[in-house]
Design a protein that fits this description.
single chain; two-stranded antiparallel sheet; 109 residues; two-stranded parallel sheet; 11% strand; globular
């Protein structure tokens, strides 16, 4: 997974809580930080938390966990997809779509 975080010319502090008391001792994380120049064609548009590029691939949100994850609450989340050169349309399809709704009911397809 990846996340774009806007930065300023000043010192940037990014705090994150990963895991919980029950998982912190057993989980391992590798975090890669890459700085991208503001004028770079690789830079995500303003407001994009994730930015997917390329003419094919898989779009997965955080905590997807092969369809077994739980949606993380209270996110200001926006996934953006770059239009590739010489392409004029994007096709999407789902191998599985599941969504839970309030009250415990579930919808799927």
């Amino acid at each position: 997974q990846h996340m774009y975080v806007p930065a300023s010319d000043q010192c940037n502090i990014l705090n994150g809580n990963i895991g919980s008391a029950s998982t912190a001792a057993t989980s391992a994380f590798t975090i890669k930080v890459t700085q991208i120049e503001c004028t770079s064609k690789r830079a995500a548009p303003s407001g994009c938390t994730q930015y997917f590029t390329g003419d094919s691939g898989t779009i997965e949100t955080y905590n997807y966990n092969s369809g077994n994850g739980v949606l993380l609450a209270n996110q200001d989340y926006s996934a953006c997809i770059r239009t590739e050169r010489t392409y004029c349309a994007i096709c999407y399809w789902s191998t599985s779509f599941k969504m839970s709704v309030p009250g415990g009911a579930a919808a799927g397809g």
